[in-house]
Amino acid sequence: MKTITKIFTTAATAVAIFASTSVNAQTMEATDMNPAPKGMAFKVGLGVSGGVFRDKSPMDYAYGADLKLQWDLTPYVALTASGGYTKLIAKNNGIDADFIPAKGGVKVFPVKRMYLATEAGAGISIQDGAKTNFIYSGGLGYEFGGFDAGIRYEGYANDSASTTYFRKTGQYALRLAYNFKL
Description:
Layout: H1 3-21, E1 41-53, E2 59-72, E3 77-90, E4 97-111, E5 114-125, E6 133-144, E7 147-157, E8 169-181
Antiparallel strand pairs: 1-2, 1-8, 2-3, 3-4, 4-5, 5-6, 6-7, 7-8
């Protein structure tokens, strides 16, 4: 064997020995893809929201606050109930609508901390002569460290005998909230 071949073989053997003795096996911890607690749990959230309406709507914008109770049935499904205050501001000096929304719904967590939500309920008017609205909504959001940010479409169907009557309309809203675990 030539000298250069012996040196190359010795160097390759030394590199292989050093490389194999310093290699450590990497371990992976199992991670839960969903942050919801195992089993049933309750949360209560305090939130504020603001929304805008389409150009054809008789309403211009809306704002409100709510208290939402969330019951986690599984790590992927939760039931919700909410109540609060909402004010719809009318365009062109129209009649504003003030009401207390009382809604129930379902949240589904298909991806870690991200949810799809749907709700339906009643908007109980606080103005004289006004009737109750039917409210329905659907949206998506993200929970992180107790905070909750979501976007939704919320539709309103109003009784034509109401003093605050407006045709069927809906808002595109942003909700920011903080959830407390119970």
